[in-house]
C-alpha cells in the first residue's frame, strides 16, 4: 500500500511503500538507520541485514544523502521517537542517486545556506518553520471565515503610496508611474464599505535599505478592515486573532515546535486579553529603565520595544501614539487631538511589532485637512476621499506581518528563515 509519512499512524503493523529522500543515515555493523523524508514529515527506516536480501542491505549502506527512493516496510510504533513510529524496511528501490549534495550535516554559514535556499528548505528545521507558517495561514483563514469576513484581494500595482512614504519600488505602467504595493489597507477600506468585514492576505514591498533581523524587502501581510467597528473593538479582534493562531500552532505543530526546540511554555500563556499601555506610559517606563535618549514624540526603536515586551509575559499593546509619527488616515482621540486611536502589538521575547492598527478618519472635513497637511494629490487619492463623501461610517483595521509572526512563534532568530525565498537588501537569488 502506497502512503506518506504523515499517514503511517493509520497503518501500524501493515506493510507500506513510501516515496522518500534520504536525509541522513548511520549504521552499526548489521543494522542501517535511514533518516527518511517525503515532504510530509520525517521518519526513521531500520534495515536489518538478516531480514533483507544482500543487495538491499548493500544499497542501504551505500545510498547517498538526498538520493530519492521507494521504501517498503512494516510500520512499527516507537515510543523513543518524537514522531512515534518507525519503518522496519524490507525493500529499497533507488529512483535517483544524488552525488555530492552541497549541504552536509556539518555547520554552514548563512550566506552559503541562502545561496542554496532551494535545497536548504529540505532540512528538518526549515521544513518545520514552513509548516508552522502554513498553519498560521490556515488558522488565519479559519478565524476570519468563522467570523463572517470576506477575503478581498487588493492590487499589487498602485498609483500611490498608502502611507505617504518614499520607500517604494517604482515602475512604469505603460505611460504612467506605478509602485509595488506597501499595503493594501486603503483598498480594504473601500472593500469594507461594500462588504462590512473584510481581510486580505498578500505580498507587500518596502524599498527600505535595512539589514536588521526583522526586515525583508518582500513580505506578506494579513490586513483586516471592519465597518462600524471602533478602536477598542478592533483591539479585541486583534488579541483574539493572535491567540487563535498561537493556540492552533500549539495544537497542530507539536513535532515542528519540538524540532525547533521551541519553549512552548512561553506560547501557552498567549491567550486574550492582552495587556495595554499608552504611549505616554511607555515613555515613562522607558525613562525609568534608563533610556534617556527617548522623548515624547519620538518613535520607538527595537531596543525600546524589547524593553517594553520584557516587562510582560504576553504580547502587549502600545496605544494612543502622537499623531505626527503615524499615518495621515488615523483618527485623532476626540479627548486629546494630538494623539491618535492607534495601537502597535509588540510580541514577547524581543520579536518587535507584529501588528499596527488604528481607527480610521471618517470625517470628510478632517480628511480634507489631512490631505493638505500631507500634500496628497486629488489625482491619486480622489477615490479614497469619496469613501468619506458617500455613506461614511466609523471603521477600523490592522495589519499583521506574517514573517515576524512566524519568527516569534517558531522561535527563529531572523525573518529570512520564515519565508521560502527571502528577498533581502543584497539578495535576489535564488
TrEMBL record:
Reaction(s) catalysed (UniProt annotation): tRNA(Asn) + L-asparagine + ATP = L-asparaginyl-tRNA(Asn) + AMP + diphosphate + H(+)
Enzyme class: ligase
InterPro entries: Aa-tRNA-synt_II, aa-tRNA-synth_II, aa-tRNA-synth_II/BPL/LPL, Asn-tRNA-ligase, Asp/Asn-tRNA-synth_IIb, NA-bd_OB-fold, NA-bd_OB_tRNA
Assigned EC number: 6.1.1.22
GO molecular function, one term: asparagine-tRNA ligase activity
UniProt entry tagged with the keyword ATP-binding: yes
UniProtKB keywords: Aminoacyl-tRNA synthetase, ATP-binding, Cytoplasm, Ligase, Nucleotide-binding, Protein biosynthesis
A GO BP annotation: asparaginyl-tRNA aminoacylation
Localization (cell): Cytoplasm
Annotated Aminoacyl-transfer RNA synthetases class-II family profile domain residues: 130-430
Domain of life: Bacteria
GO cellular component, one term: cytoplasm
Mitochondrion is among the record's keywords: no
Main location group: cytoplasm
PANTHER family cross-referenced by the UniProt entry: ASPARAGINE--TRNA LIGASE, MITOCHONDRIAL-RELATED, ASPARTYL/LYSYL-TRNA SYNTHETASE
Assembly, per entry: Homodimer.
Similarity section: Belongs to the class-II aminoacyl-tRNA synthetase family.
Name under which the protein is recorded: Asparagine--tRNA ligase
Amino acid at each position: 500500500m502506497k502512503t506518506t509519512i504523515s499517514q503511517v499512524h493509520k497503518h501500524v503493523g501493515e506493510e507500506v511503500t513510501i516515496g522518500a529522500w534520504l536525509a541522513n543515515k548511520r549504521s552499526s555493523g548489521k543494522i542501517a538507520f535511514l533518516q527518511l523524508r517525503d515532504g510530509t514529515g520525517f521518519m526513521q527506516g531500520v534495515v536489518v541485514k538478516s531480514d533483507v536480501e544482500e543487495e538491499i542491505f548493500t544499497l542501504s549502506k551505500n545510498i547517498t544523502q538526498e538520493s530519492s527512493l521507494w521504501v517498503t516496510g512494516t510500520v512499527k510504533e516507537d515510543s523513543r521517537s518524537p514522531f512515534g513510529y518507525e519503518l522496519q524496511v524490507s525493500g529499497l528501490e533507488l529512483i535517483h542517486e544524488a552525488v555530492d549534495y552541497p549541504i552536509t550535516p556539518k555547520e554552514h554559514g548563512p550566506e552559503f545556506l541562502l545561496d542554496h535556499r532551494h535545497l536548504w528548505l529540505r532540512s528538518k528545521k526549515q521544513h518545520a518553520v514552513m509548516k508552522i507558517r502554513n498553519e498560521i495561514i490556515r488558522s488565519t483563514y479559519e478565524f476570519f471565515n468563522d467570523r463572517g469576513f470576506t477575503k478581498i484581494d487588493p492590487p499589487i500595482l498602485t498609483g500611490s503610496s498608502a502611507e505617504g512614504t518614499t520607500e517604494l519600488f517604482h515602475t512604469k505602467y505603460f505611460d504612467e508611474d506605478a509602485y509595488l504595493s506597501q499595503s493594501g489597507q486603503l483598498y480594504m477600506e473601500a472593500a469594507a464599505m461594500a462588504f462590512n468585514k473584510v481581510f486580505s492576505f498578500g505580498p507587500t514591498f518596502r524599498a527600505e535599505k535595512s539589514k536588521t533581523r526583522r526586515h525583508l524587502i518582500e513580505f506578506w501581510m494579513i490586513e483586516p478592515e471592519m465597518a462600524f467597528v471602533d478602536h477598542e473593538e478592533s483591539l479585541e479582534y486583534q488579541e483574539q486573532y493572535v491567540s487563535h493562531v498561537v493556540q492552533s500552532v500549539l495544537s497542530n505543530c507539536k513535532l515542528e515546535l519540538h524540532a525547533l526546540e521551541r519553549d512552548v511554555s512561553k506560547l501557552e500563556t498567549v491567550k486574550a486579553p492582552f495587556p495595554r499601555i499608552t504611549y505616554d506610559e511607555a515613555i515613562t517606563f522607558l525613562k525609568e529603565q534608563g533610556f534617556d535618549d527617548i522623548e515624547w514624540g519620538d518613535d520607538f526603536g527595537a531596543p525600546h520595544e524589547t524593553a517594553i515586551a520584557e516587562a510582560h509575559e504576553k504580547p502587549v499593546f502600545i496605544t494612543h501614539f502622537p499623531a505626527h509619527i503615524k499615518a495621515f488616515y488615523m483618527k485623532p482621540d476626540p479627548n486629546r487631538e494630538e494623539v491618535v486611536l492607534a495601537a502597535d502589538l509588540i510580541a514577547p521575547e524581543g520579536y518587535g511589532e507584529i501588528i499596527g492598527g488604528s481607527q480610521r478618519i471618517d470625517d470628510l472635513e478632517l480628511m480634507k485637512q489631512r490631505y493638505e497637511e500631507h500634500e496628497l494629490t486629488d489625482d491619486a487619492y480622489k477615490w479614497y476621499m469619496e469613501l468619506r463623501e458617500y455613506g461614511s461610517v466609523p471603521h477600523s483595521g490592522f495589519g499583521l506581518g506574517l514573517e515576524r509572526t512566524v519568527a516569534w512563534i517558531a522561535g527563529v532568530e531572523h525573518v529570512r528563515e520564515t519565508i521560502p525565498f527571502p528577498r533581502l537588501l543584497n539578495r535576489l537569488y535564488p
